[in-house]
């Protein structure tokens, strides 16, 4: 039973050769579950990544050759070429497709669907499930994958580049005396606010997230928070988040973001991929928060007549 596997396996992160275990002492590693696994330096890893974040990290640290399968979303954030495309930790599709690739490790990350995780736990392959919520968690995941791949130095270089890029953005944001009130949305129905790491990026960019991050949010909560800017980055939609759905909410009509037509779309993988793409996501956020006098090209699709016909929701 998958539940039995989870109970038995949840007390261990990864059981590697003794030389590798010593390098897995990473404070703050955040994970939901992992299964035990033994390997040696001479055992080539065959990794199936069910998470674009893991794929982007592995490629960035020089471990792309270990990948034998990725999700259909990974091409947007990593150079995966013609690697077999599979499902993800929400809709895994056929587990048989994973088994045919004979993986020595399968890696997943948020978001998870309970049934998908249960199905993966029933399989013979080792499964590592990362569950980052903060930028510190993401850094820990990068170090963890660096240790697993015996590329710890490369992982530290990646982290240094990320820290430097975010620091430069933060320096620019400090020139502004007033912090912008922001609502970032990861899903419209039910409304779900963007993850905690996005709230941290908003802060770095000179704003403040005005609702709890990574939670179901009511329209009344958003209205009461009175954001000056709304950022839509709906999961797995690319740039297809629709600003009209914000402009048509009757209870939002008097919010500064709606009155001033400050509803913006950021490509979802730049904010929803807990890894290297967040650097570009932060740049996009900075542009949105500090170029508010310009109408977002997505907003222009909604003309004045449409906003006046807002239906009551």
In short:
This protein is α/β, with parallel strands linked by helices.
Structure description:
With 313 residues, the chain is of the alpha/beta class. It folds into 2 domains: 2-158, Rossmann fold, CATH 3.40.50; 176-308, Nitrogenase molybdenum iron protein domain (Rossmann fold, 3-Layer(aba) Sandwich), CATH 3.40.50.1980. The chain contains 14 helices and 11 strands. It has a 6-stranded mixed beta sheet with strand order 1-6-5-2-3-4, with helices on one face. Strands 7, 8, 9, 10 and 11 form a 5-stranded mixed beta sheet that branches. A hairpin with a 2-residue loop joins strand 7 (180-188) and strand 8 (191-193). Helix 1 packs across helix 5 and helix 7 (152-173) runs parallel beside helix 13 (277-289). The model is unreliable at 1-40 and 293-313 (pLDDT under 50).
Tally of contiguous helical segments? 14
CATH class of the largest domain: Alpha Beta
Mean pLDDT: 84
Structural shape:
globular
CATH topology of the largest domain: Rossmann fold
Task: Tell me the strand percentage band.
Answer: 5-15%
Count up the domains: 2
CATH architecture of the largest domain: 3-Layer(aba) Sandwich
Helices and strands, in order, run as HHEEHEEHEHEHHEEHEHEHHEHHH
Strand ordering within the main sheet: 1-6-5-2-3-4
Low-pLDDT parts are: 1-40, 293-313
The helix content is 25-40%
Count of DSSP E strands? Answer: 11
**Which radius of gyration do the C-alpha atoms yield?**
21 Å
Biggest pleated-sheet summary: 6 strands, mixed
CATH superfamily of the largest domain: Nitrogenase molybdenum iron protein domain
Name the structural class. alpha/beta
* Intertermini distance: 44 Å
